[in-house]
Amino acid sequence: MFNEEGKLIQRMVPMLQRVLIVDPAPASARLLADLMRNISAGQLWNAPNNRKGLEAAELVNPQLIFVELSGDKVDGVDFARRVRHSEFNCRQAPIIMVTATATAAAILGARDAGVHEFLRKPYTAKDLLRRLEAVTLRPRDWVEAVDYIGPDRRRFNSGDYTGKLKRRSDIKTTPDAARITQALKILKSAVSAVATDPKQALRSMQAQGVDLQKAAVAVGDLKLVTTVADFQRYLAGAADRGVLIPEEVVRNAAPLLALLPADELSRKPSDRAVVSV
């Protein structure tokens, strides 16, 4: 390999020590494994179907996952969604979808399932390196919402997709003000989902609290820092108790949600039930 490629690989290697390949076809799984061994001397695991893939993901905590879009007992989109919604340590690990049918619909479906990259067959070692560089050296913001869990979809980096979603402005880092607005919108959605999906709602609200705190400090908004800290303390207490009370969540989130425009505010849930988390 060229010297530049060698330097690039050296930078990526620490993030490629544990790799999981979910592929029902032994030949294609072996080809990908061989290419990965030429790049990194890390450990490789292969799973022939979704069930074994999920078991391996939980057990070995991969730093990177390859999954076929479809095959015998393999549904890459479903696999990605299950990993993202799981309690696995690797739930935020980069996922690269592999397929010979890279249609626009397939790419967008993978993107919406929380996949980082799309690798179309037949591919070369250079194609593989491009995807590995994207997921290891160009990390994207993580979105922890209720309806979507995964990397920021506005910055989908697939080399196979050149459509309207790849905007020039997407290359830029999200400004702090925009980050605050996005976090508040996700928080609004999470609050309204407490009664229907309490575990993910709690996880989403906690994640938005962290994002809001960082952005508030960056812009020097001491009032927002204090307001977020109060909400984080409430969430920590609710997590310790193991229950969320929808009405209570709405009340404690209100000072933050009040920072959104009026038309962005969610309806207050009337459900007074105690929800286990």
UniProtKB/TrEMBL annotation:
SUPFAM superfamilies: CheY-like. Keywords: Phosphoprotein. InterPro entries: Bact_response_regulator, CheY-like_superfamily, Sig_transdc_resp-reg_receiver. Residues 18-136 form the Response regulatory domain. The keyword tRNA-binding does not apply. This is Response regulator.
